[in-house]
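Protein of interest.
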Amino acid sequence: MFIQNQISSLPNHLKTIKELLHGADKVFLTVAYIRNSGVDQIIEELKLIIERGGKVRLICSNDMGITQPSAVKRILEIGAEIKICKFETGTF
């Protein structure tokens, strides 16, 4: 599933993602890129998980410079763990 904020003809799974986050105590997110537009959509749910003592972990890449450092910083500031992968060949 993915959150797509820019192309309205593609499916947007935000409602389902938020439902899955509600009440979760562990979240493992794997995304190609992390941007503020996506963080804006789920940051409050992630904060609640961490405030309840849960864990949030994120794996993303920085291929082509698409991941925004400010988005990574926001996720780190709420107490989540992040691993940024850099691939020798290909992309995420």
Remarks:
- The two ends are 15 Å apart (CA to CA).
- Residues 27 and 56 are 5 Å apart (CA to CA).
- The chain has a mean pLDDT of 86.
- The longest helix spans residues 36-51.
